[in-house]
Design goal:
Blueprint (H helix, E strand, L loop, with lengths): L1 H37 L6 H23 L14 H32 L6 E2 L2 E2 H5 L1 H16 L8 H13 L1 H9 L5 H31 L3 H15 L6 H9 L7 H14 L2 H13 L5 H17 L2 H19 L4 H10 L11 H10 L3 H30 L8 H26 L5 H19 L8 H31 L2 H12 L3 H18 L2 H7 L1 H10 L4 H15 L7 H10 L3 H24 L2 H9 L1
Antiparallel strand pairs: 1-2
Helix pairs in contact: 1-2, 1-19, 2-5, 2-20, 3-5, 3-6, 3-7, 3-9, 3-10, 5-6, 8-9, 9-20, 10-20, 11-13, 11-14, 11-19, 11-20, 12-13, 12-18, 13-14, 13-17, 14-15, 14-26, 15-26, 15-27, 16-17, 16-23, 16-25, 17-25, 17-27, 17-28, 18-19, 20-23, 21-24, 22-25, 22-27, 24-25, 25-27, 26-27
Length: 621
């Protein structure tokens, strides 16, 4: 009976995820059709779209928790000491249960206090949509507790973790019960929490850093840091729920699940194989022609997924086979190239990080798209150049060019090749908004891969959704809590204070840029790009303004450093993903990547100190 109930709840949960995602696809599409052809619109469409994003964010986060796919640093997963790994897994699971329980109670308070009286979204009150927050975080807390590897009587610790989270949520619970007219005793208890948080800020921060390296999900770490700092400064902890709601009802974030799903539809079809055949037939006669094909493929896919890990995991096997078996490149060269190329498309439209940089800094997204093109081409060109030099030195055999074969391959892959051009034209012409571009991308790829090429059976679409949802949930979970931490940093005037201090310490713009590069490399190898954009970028953006750096140039500097940071030991994310994908020790992967990392660092310096590379096209637009 329990199993059937659990199965029914899981079916409902998945159904809500699918329904929300489909609404995010179809509502902007309907809006486009009505606006362009009938000069009309879908009633309440903007409000419905952003609130379906909220629903998707929480329910896909539940999905990600169940799958154990939340982004984390997790250095200990590569340890051979099983006992240590188990102890840290228990500790990280219990900590996650405690912190996420606090999110749930904060959400309960937020829905009652801050969304009262409710506003109608179409015919649905916003409080109804917002109820997914306490439900979602409550389920996540339960799952973190249940999935903690405890056995026997020790499982009582999981229950105690939920109870501890509830006790730590008392200030939010008091507000839920009595609003702003709580009894004197409740105020005294709340003041006690403020004092306790003030004294415990430093030890808790140290604990959280250790927990992050132990494998605690990054969104939990970010949220816990935000909670302790807000409470330690005398703030209300339910502000965190307010900022989560704000983040997950941002129109600019709607594109994230849409482009992520587009990337998964492409990777689950045979689009990669068709494109690889096309590139080989076009460039195989050149020295390093296969390298051109491989790097071009990585850039194409990453520009849609926005997450380098997806590219490595989805295309790594196909491209490794092509490079090391069909073309006799040494395995260490192939692995190094593919690991380094996993994030190489982040500067090309419609890259999600570019979109988020625009949202975080209020910079024109079109200008950022244009600003990333030349640096992106230089970065891709540098990687290809290494491949050409290596191919010539090792005398990799060339493939003869056959016009008929190339034309046939080009014809077969023409629909995929047209996709980025169609999207760029639609967006830059002003016909489609960013959200509508994301919707168009999903629908276009769905029609091409399901109905034209028939690579994905219509009955198997749910499997694509199942693979995409944990990634979507992981990204949106991080963005939601990063928004909360960013709010705290900005509210305490952190960027202004940091700007004044740095200006007094460093007067040279060029020295500042060098320090910025070094700092961002460290950031890039420690945290994911989405957290960095929401937390770190608001800190450095005022500095860029103070030193007279163009906002577009600063955004491109930020992203290209993050790309290099993915490859920087000891904890560059792409190194871990490549170790997992290619089944090689982490140290070997790091060694294979060194020559490509040096190339990327050279491009970083070039882009940093020659701003015209980022700003030239924006001035022509």
């Amino acid at each position: 009976m329990m199993g059937k109930t659990r199965g029914l709840l899981w079916t409902i949960e998945q159904g809500i995820c699918y329904f929300s995602l489909v609404c995010l696809i179809l509502l902007p599409a309907a809006e486009t059709v009505l606006r362009v052809f009938f000069h009309s619109r879908v009633p309440a469409s903007p409000g419905l779209i952003i609130h379906f994003l909220l629903v998707l964010g929480l329910f896909s986060g539940m999905n990600t928790t169940k799958a154990g796919d939340h982004l984390s640093i997790g250095l200990l997963q590569f340890s051979s000491n099983e006992k240590s790994k188990r102890i840290f897994a228990i500790g990280c699971g219990l900590l996650s249960a405690v912190v996420v329980t606090i999110f749930a109670w904060c959400s309960v308070s937020f829905v009652k206090i801050y969304l009262s009286p409710p506003q109608l979204i179409g015919f649905i009150p916003d409080q109804v949509f917002a109820l997914v927050m306490p439900i979602g975080y409550g389920v996540m807390a339960f799952r973190f507790a249940r999935l903690t590897p405890l056995q026997g009587k020790a499982r009582i610790l999981a229950v105690l973790a939920i109870l501890l989270g509830t006790v730590l949520s008392l200030p939010a619970i008091f507000k839920f019960l009595w609003g702003f007219d709580a009894p004197e005793a409740a105020y005294r208890i709340t003041d006690g929490f403020f004092t306790l948080a003030w004294y415990l800020k430093t030890p808790v921060l140290i604990l959280l850093i250790l927990a992050a390296f132990g494998g605690t999900p990054l969104f939990v770490i970010i949220g816990a840091v935000t909670l302790i700092f807000i409470q330690g400064s005398g703030g209300e902890i339910d502000v965190v729920a307010n900022q989560i709601y704000t983040a997950l009802t941002q129109n600019s974030f709607v594109a994230i699940p849409l482009f992520t799903l587009t990337g998964f539809l492409l990777s689950e079809s045979k689009a990669g194989e068709r494109l690889m055949v096309t590139f080989r037939s076009l460039f195989g006669w050149l020295p390093g022609g296969i390298i051109i094909a491989a790097v071009g493929m990585c850039a194409f896919f990453t520009s849609f997924t926005g997450a380098s890990g997806v590219t490595i995991l989805a295309l790594g096997g196909i491209l490794y086979t092509v490079l090391s078996e069909n073309a006799p490149y040494p395995p260490k060269f192939s692995i190094g190239l593919l690991t380094a190329s996993g994030s190489i498309g982040l500067l090309f439209p419609p890259s999600l990080p570019l979109i988020l940089v625009g949202a975080a800094t209020r910079t024109n997204t079109i200008h950022l798209f244009l600003g990333g093109i030349l640096p992106g081409i230089i970065l891709v060109g540098g990687m290809i150049l290494v491949g050409i030099i290596f191919s010539v030195k090792t005398k990799i055999p060339l493939e003869p060019f056959r016009l008929k074969t190339a034309a046939s391959a080009l014809k077969k892959s023409s629909l995929e090749i047209l996709l980025p051009f169609l999207l760029v034209v639609g967006y830059f012409s002003g016909v489609l908004s960013l959200v509508e571009i994301g919707s168009a991308a999903v629908i276009y790829v769905f029609v091409v891969e399901v109905f034209i090429f028939k690579d994905i059976k219509i009955t198997k679409i749910n499997q694509v959704f199942i693979k995409a949802l944990p990634i979507i949930g992981g990204i949106l979970s991080i963005l939601a809590l990063s928004q909360a931490l960013s709010y705290y940093i900005v509210d305490t005037q952190g960027p202004e204070r940091f700007t004044r201090w740095l200006q007094s310490a460093i007067s040279s713009k060029y020295l500042f840029l060098l320090i910025l590069n070094l700092s961002l490399l460290v950031v890039g190898c420690l945290i994911d790009i989405f957290s960095a954009i929401m937390i770190v970028l608001p800190l450095i953006f005022p500095l860029g303004v103070a030193y007279g750096i163009d906002p577009v140039h600063l955004g491109i500097i930020f992203l290209i450093n993050m790309e290099a940071g993915f490859l920087t030991p000891p904890v560059g994310m792409n190194l871990f993903l490549a170790s997992y994908r290619f089944r090689k020790p982490f140290v070997e992967i790091a060694r294979y990547v060194v020559p490509f990392l040096l190339i990327q660092l050279g491009v970083v310096l070039l882009v940093t100190y020659i701003p015209v590379l980022s700003t030239w096209l924006t001035k022509l637009y």
